[in-house]
Design a protein that fits this description.
Distance between the termini: 71 Å
Order of helices and strands: HEEEEEEEEEH
Number of strands: 9
Strand content: 25-35%
CATH architecture of the domain at 33-102 and 110-135 and 153-164: 3-Layer(bab) Sandwich
Helix content: 25-40%
Structural class: alpha+beta
CATH superfamily of the domain at 33-102 and 110-135 and 153-164: minor pseudopilin epsh domain
Largest sheet: 5 strands, antiparallel
CATH topology of the domain at 33-102 and 110-135 and 153-164: minor pseudopilin epsh fold
Shape: elongated
Number of helices: 2
CATH class of the domain at 33-102 and 110-135 and 153-164: Alpha Beta
Amino acid sequence: MARGFTLIELLIAIGLTALLAGLAAPSFLPLSQTAQLDAQSQRLIDALWYTRSQAISRNIPLTMRAVNQDWSNGWQIFTDADQNGHPRDNDSILRASAALPNGYSLSANQGLGSTIGYRPDGRSARPGGGLQMGTFTLCSQSASAGLVAREIIVISAAGRPRKSRAPSALAERECNPSF
């Protein structure tokens, strides 16, 4: 008695496997989108922590500034001896970040604006020294809903960045002004 599979049985098994794989693939799409979104928000949080820690360890003011006044275009981190929020000839650019990928946008509320300064004690401060705290809203493109708020990053009065768990209605307006 011969053992094994016939060609027809093998083709049926391969066909069923392909069908099941095709049905399972769309369920991985949200997981992939969530991972990509998390990577973008973590990139921002890492840059904020880097700026804060370098200001403390170097004992000098540092600034993180949006490229062309738009956080979606990326940012620069530089020493800011005169604390004016603009890099000058005697300031060193420590890091620069590229723009966000297509399908993502990043905005900051008026509490943050386009410049975040960190002082040698680790607190965030506006150029000129005023209190600075607020939120970033990271939006991602959804085929069905347009841009939607996916991540909220909060900068506390002490300068510590953290993710907020649930986007608020105010944050939704940042992604969809018609909301």
